[in-house]
């Protein structure tokens, strides 16, 4: 990749936590179609980073570039401290990739798939068998190890796929839509596996179509749209970007309701339901301030709920020209 693009200020790390992946100005086009239009990334080691975006947004292209499968047209990147352009072999030695489509060979057994990966990683016969056995047990596949992989369920194939990825003990794993097509139980099982990997210090770069998945797993999330990063942050930070968050107070005592209505600023009253809607970002600070005010005014609400936009709202707002959905999640407090 050309080195003309200046790195981001985080390139050298400085006082920040060590970065597993750093990218600056990555660009990729196919003909006249620009897929990535200068994206910057900094992913701390031992974390889960989720890249969201509609179909065709460039998520898989980003994974392919960072995992050395294709080259970028411009920009710089370091993965596990190694430059993609000058030392791709060192990058490959440090990473594992589980793509959208399973790499499992259905004609051979689960154990044979694992041993094949061990051979590709140049493990000795003894070490390969030990590693295969340990990973098959870790992913609850020991009982099925001698069966052809074609007989496995979707969830079992996905677990075997990830187990094969771990044969080389990578410290950075790219998971490109790892739970697509799985039933809810298998998806939750995969989530638990990912959490265990991160607890062992592995860095996970995740692309997904499931917003709940990113919300559950990711330390940081980036939304990719039209080849650019539309927004990046924690799930809570992204949710606060979207208007519509509020606190709802409901009263059974009409006098308390009227007192709160006239004393609070910027409220939307509902006289029939005896409820007040107060704009809020849902932060702990704002909630504490409201509760302190209610205590000081000796006003008691019978019910308090915090309404916050969810990642669906964020996704729609950042990737389409449609109106932001008005319905938001309610979490009783």
TrEMBL record:
It comes from Streptomyces albipurpureus. Residues 21-251 form the ABC transporter domain. Its main location: membrane. It is a peripheral membrane protein. SMART domains: AAA (SM00382). It is found in: Cell membrane. GO terms for molecular function: ATP binding. The keyword Cytoplasm does not apply. Pfam families: ABC_tran. Keywords: Antibiotic resistance, ATP-binding, Cell membrane, Membrane, Nucleotide-binding, Translocase, Transport. InterPro entries: AAA+_ATPase, ABC_transporter-like_ATP-bd, ABC_transporter-like_CS, ABC_transporter_ATP-binding, DrrA, P-loop_NTPase. Signal peptide: none annotated. Belongs to the ABC transporter superfamily. Drug exporter-1 (DrugE1) (TC 3.A.1.105) family. This is ATP-binding cassette domain-containing protein.
């Amino acid at each position: 990749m050309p080195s003309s693009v200046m790195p981001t200020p985080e390139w050298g790390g400085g006082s920040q936590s060590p970065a597993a992946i750093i990218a600056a100005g990555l660009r990729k086009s196919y003909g006249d179609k620009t897929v990535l239009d200068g994206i910057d990334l900094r992913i701390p080691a031992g974390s889960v980073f989720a890249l969201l975006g509609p179909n065709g947004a460039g998520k898989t292209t980003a994974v392919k570039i960072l995992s050395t499968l294709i080259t970028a047209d411009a920009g710089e990147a370091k993965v596990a401290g190694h430059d993609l352009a000058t030392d791709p072999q060192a990058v490959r030695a440090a990473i594992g990739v589980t793509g959208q489509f399973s790499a499992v060979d259905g004609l051979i057994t689960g154990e044979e798939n694992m041993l094949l990966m061990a051979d590709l990683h140049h493990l000795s016969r003894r070490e390969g068998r030990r590693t295969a056995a340990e990973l098959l047990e870790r992913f609850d596949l020991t009982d099925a190890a001698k069966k052809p992989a074609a007989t496995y369920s979707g969830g079992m194939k996905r677990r075997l796929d990830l187990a094969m990825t771990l044969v080389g003990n990578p410290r950075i794993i790219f998971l490109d839509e790892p739970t697509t097509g799985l039933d809810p139980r298998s998806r939750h099982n995969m989530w638990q596996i990912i959490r265990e990997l991160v607890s062992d210090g592995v860095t996970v770069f995740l692309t997904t179509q499931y917003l709940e998945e990113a919300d559950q797993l990711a330390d940081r999330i980036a939304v990719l749209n039209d080849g650019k990063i539309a927004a990046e942050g924690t799930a809570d930070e992204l949710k606060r970007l979207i208007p519509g968050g509020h606190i709802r107070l409901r009263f059974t005592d009409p006098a308390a309701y009227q007192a709160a209505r006239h004393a609070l600023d910027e409220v939307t009253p509902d006289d029939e339901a005896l409820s007040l809607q107060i704009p809020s970002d849902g932060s702990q600070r704002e909630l504490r301030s409201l509760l302190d005010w209610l205590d000081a005014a000796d006003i008691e609400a019978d019910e308090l709920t915090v309404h916050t936009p969810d990642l669906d709202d964020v996704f729609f707002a950042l990737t389409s020209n449609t109106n932001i959905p008005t319905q938001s999640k309610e979490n009783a407090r």
